[in-house]
């Protein structure tokens, strides 16, 4: 209880001696043999202003916390990062920018160097303050595997916060794979030791998969670009995080031409009507997978968007029944939407309206399990010969929805809005225009037997 009260005391570790405040703090027993300053840390703050004293105290407190944590952790990458950060904070508390000694001697004027020396007068020759001011603490140099762990735990923690568990898992897995390939090709190198030649090895690996000299490749240019981009981003974000944004990125400008992007072919409209919507065609799919497949036909929403709808965004009692595709902002159950333009409302017509009347609470079986959903539906379509060619997939229904809107000459901006694509003007309004959207979609709604739902 005493320590807890101390942590919330606004004047903790402050002593007024004469007219000046001093920072005084007991060194924890666990690290007393490793911290050579004795049982107590004492430092004059050279100010009689209580607010300024508290600010300086905060800097020293943070630095000591980091120092003691690093001493208890020992010699590992996390300890090196802690030691470096505390050196930066100590230098700042004394009015200096932390720089390595070699940089101080080559880049700073003599006057500033003398000021650094004068600020340490009275300090032991080997003390945290002297090391910080004179640049004697080496910057951290994690291996790329440890840098990736730091990337996940600290650097992009805020970005991961809004992802669902499944989104987070898949997002991490893609970046882990990029790093694993690099380690297999090169080695688990310290970040500062990664060279352009190392980056070129990774680039050649993907080039040989995308465009081998003796035949067609087994990977797309976009796959190669994504993997090189993952390494480039990790490298840049890591060095920005540890305070070296100017570090030259060896993965810069290494990419692949992607002029012939492969696109999934759409289903012909008569194939959807006569094959997919035929009674019995989807009967052996479980009810929720079948519902999503049928709703996909008349909404064009991504399967992941449909799988993660819930009761609060399914509006069957409105004048225009519709679904709202939007992020889940529940901190206990978050989920991101692919892009800002993907947030939209889609009127329900035809078989999609019938599906949501049967599933007014959505499809909980496939919440955050869109990979399993796609595997289940693709397997069923293949087994029952519901694909026109071997190039078609379940996702091809989204391209079919877009083509059907084009063929019916629906307004381009309306098409882009319903597909969740970006537009170069403010989005359509709501209210009366929802009725117009419904009327336009009715033009492409396909006939169906209610028994298929």
Helical residues, percent: 40-55%
- Characterize the biggest β-sheet: 3 strands, antiparallel
Distance between the termini: 62 Å
Strand element count: 6
Query: Helix segment count?
Result: 19
Strand order of the largest sheet: 1-2-3
Residue stretches low in confidence (pLDDT < 50, at least 5 long) are none
Summing up helix and strand content along with how strands pair, one would put the structural category as: mainly alpha
Fill in the CATH topology of the largest domain: hpI Integrase, Chain A
Shape: elongated
How would you sum up this structure, described in words?
Keywords: DNA integration, DNA recombination, DNA-binding. By secondary structure, this protein is mainly alpha-helical. The chain has three domains: 2-133, no CATH class; 144-241, no CATH class; 269-452, hpI Integrase, Chain A. Helix content is 49%, strand content 6%. The radius of gyration is 30 Å and the shape is elongated. The N and C termini lie far apart (62 Å).
Furnish the topology, listing elements before pairings.
Blueprint: H1 2-7, E1 14-17, E2 20-26, E3 40-44, H2 50-73, H3 77-93, H4 101-107, H5 110-119, H6 128-133, H7 144-155, H8 157-161, H9 165-185, H10 196-210, H11 221-241, H12 269-276, H13 287-299, H14 303-307, E4 314-315, E5 322-325, E6 344-347, H15 350-358, H16 370-383, H17 396-407, H18 412-419, H19 432-442
Antiparallel strand pairs: 1-2, 2-3, 4-5, 5-6
Helix pairs in contact: 2-3, 7-9, 7-11, 9-11, 10-11, 13-15, 13-17
